[in-house]
Specification:
Layout lengths: L2 E6 L6 H7 L2 E3 L2 E4 L2 E4 L6 H9 L4 E3 L4 H12 L4 E5 L8 H11 L7 E3 L6 H16 L4 H10 L4 E6 L4 H5 L5 H9 L5 E4 L4 E5 L4 H17 L3 H5 L3 E7 L3 H14 L4 E7 L2 H7 L4 E7 L2
Parallel strand pairs: 1-2, 1-6, 6-7, 11-12
Antiparallel strand pairs: 3-4, 3-5, 8-9, 8-13, 9-10, 11-13
């Protein structure tokens, strides 16, 4: 039984990296001034931020199930079954739409397992690597999907937002709150604990924001994930939005703070998250590994 792993570009895995790994990545659609682009195919990170900062109307949308089905069909020409790992259903309806498609389309029944394990960006990428390792061990799609679902809440993401402009633009802040926050130079820290993007803290300085995120990860590792840490099964990673230099610096701080935890990735945040928070963001995450 040959099992394939398929994900979407919210995982941060590029098309080039996907080829090297032997997986498939569905590019997520991005709407810019009414025109549709596809992440890492017809739209690069650089082009995205150029448009975003130029005040273009930027939003993300669900991929067409028919297009995703075509990717699945192609994969199933060489594999018996596949596990599809999309972005968290708490951030998009995409997962539920594709679960229904896989369960009702006759040619995918019993062959395509759509996993709603509440991941995005660097934690989603970790799920892909876990699934790939299990597939290489000969695990079935059902076994892989079951493990990913059983461990779905064993991750945390904390994100420092560089500017309040895009949260305001997306309707997540009132204009008055955004204006006050900008004047006070607040750099809010948001969190993703499986489902939605929520407020966590309101520091004013980058150094304070990083300390808050490090302390939050430390607390998670010492409490929620204590057993996984003892088993050597936790990882730490960094993500950013057009903020690579600071992300590399943050990586070193995290490695120094947590020398016994495996550090995995420094990745750009997915465009689905980036369009809501804008450039200059910095994030760290911890996630279980298989």
């Amino acid at each position: 039984m040959k099992t394939a792993i398929v994900t979407d570009s919210n995982s941060g895995i590029t098309q080039a990296a996907a080829k090297e790994l032997g997986i498939s990545v569905v590019p997520m659609p991005v709407l810019i001034d009414g025109e549709i682009y596809f992440e890492d195919l017809t739209l690069s990170q650089e082009q995205f931020y150029e448009k975003l900062k130029g005040d273009a109307q930027v939003s993300t949308s669900q991929p067409n199930p028919i297009d995703v089905g075509e990717v699945w069909d192609k994969v199933l020409q060489n594999y018996d079954e596949l596990v599809y790992i999309p972005m968290s259903s708490g951030l998009s309806e995409t997962c539920h739409t594709l679960q229904h498609y896989a369960e009702t389309e006759e040619r995918f029944k019993g062959k395509v397992y759509v996993v709603d394990n509440q991941r995005i960006s660097i934690t989603q990428r970790q799920s892909v690597m876990d699934g790939l390792k299990m597939a290489q061990e000969g695990k079935s799609a059902r076994e892989i999907a079951d493990w990913l679902m059983a461990s779905k809440m064993k991750s945390s993401i904390y994100i420092m937002v560089g500017t309040l402009k895009y949260l305001k633009k997306g309707g997540r802040l009132t204009p008055a709150v955004a204006a006050i926050g900008t004047l006070l130079k607040i750099k809010p820290v948001l969190q993703i604990q499986g489902f939605k993007l929520d407020q966590f803290a309101k520091p004013r300085k980058l150094a304070d924001a990083k300390r808050i995120m490090i302390d939050a990860i430390k607390k998670d590792l010492e409490t929620r994930f204590k057993n996984e840490v003892a088993e050597g099964r936790m990882t730490i990673a960094v993500a950013h939005t057009e903020n690579l230099e600071e992300a590399e610096n943050f990586k070193e701080e995290l490695k120094e703070t947590f020398p016994n935890i495996e550090f995995t990735y420094v990745d750009p945040l997915s465009l689905s998250v980036s369009c809501h928070i804008g450039p200059g963001a910095l994030a760290c995450a911890c996630a279980i590994k298989y």
